[in-house]
Design a protein that fits this description.
It is a single chain. Helix content is about 45%, strand content about 15%. By secondary structure, it is an alpha/beta fold. The protein has one domain: Rossmann fold. Strands 1-3-2-4-5-6-7 form a seven-stranded mixed sheet, sandwiched between helices. Helix 1 packs across helix 8 and helix 5 packs antiparallel against helix 6. The chain is globular and about 55 Å long.
Length: about 240
């Protein structure tokens, strides 16, 4: 079976645009359902791909990505939408993308609103995120690449040797972002699954307390709200948020 390589997408629909930022082990594909829904509702939607993502090699994320690079890509994505003539730009991020969506709301004046889904802000322990990435890597090597057990073990040892430094850098970035949450004065959507195993669901309450404009939405679901059982409910809530803010 041929595995199609994930691609970034841009739906040019209306003068108002929504930027969607994906997760650590995800791709723009995780934002496509929400993107198509917003396109049908009259919004232009752009979902770029963070460096290192969307390839058949999980190590690319650790070798070619990083918070500084991903933030630069967020800035470039906003500039792209501005160059397309979009006057009203909102930004939402899933998990890792939530960090940069929040930073964008703190630092980019042109962003009019935005929010997060499954945000890792105030999640002090990244152990579950680490475990999930290791599981993702093993699945790619065994299912997509069809490597032998010996080859898989060799690859996983390399991933294991690199991932902690990356997660440390991401954690440092979240600290910087949380220190500036009070700077957000534009509408801020928080979507959080009650059964999220990768981040601390209670952290969403802390963020909501720090951001005066926050609107906290709970979902009876796990981490990846854009594609799991909550995605229809999330899509409606995001559209309502955009239409009324």
């Amino acid at each position: 079976m041929k595995i199609l390589t994930p691609q970034p997408f841009y739906f040019d629909k209306g003068s108002s645009a929504v930027l969607l930022l994906h997760s650590f082990s995800g791709t723009a594909n995780d934002m496509r359902l929400l993107g198509r829904f917003l396109e049908r509702s009259g919004y232009s939607v752009y979902a770029p791909m963070f460096a290192g993502h969307g390839t058949p090699e999980p190590l690319d994320i650790l070798n070619f990505g990083g918070p500084d690079h991903w933030w630069e890509q967020t800035l470039e994505a906003v500039d792209f939408l501005k160059a397309q003539g979009k006057k009203q730009i909102s930004v939402f991020g899933l998990s890792l993308g939530a960090i940069f969506a929040t930073k964008a709301l703190e630092e980019i004046p042109e962003i009019v609103s935005g929010g997060v889904f499954g945000s890792p802000l105030y999640t002090s322990n990244f152990r579950e995120i680490r475990n999930a990435f290791m599981t993702y890597a093993k699945k790619v090597y065994s299912v997509q690449q069809g490597l032998t057990e010996v080859e898989i073990d060799s690859k996983i040892r390399v991933v294991d040797s690199k991932i902690d430094s990356m997660l440390t850098e991401i954690s440092k970035t979240t600290v910087g972002v949380t220190e500036n949450l009070a700077e957000i004065n534009r509408p801020y959507f928080i979507g959080q699954g009650t059964s999220d195993k990768l981040v601390n669901p209670d952290a969403a309450k802390i963020v909501a307390q720090k951001v005066g404009t926050a609107q906290l939405h709970w979902y009876d679901a796990g981490h990846v709200l854009t594609i799991n059982s909550a995605h229809h409910e999330l899509e409606s809530a995001v559209l309502n948020f955009l239409e009324n803010n």
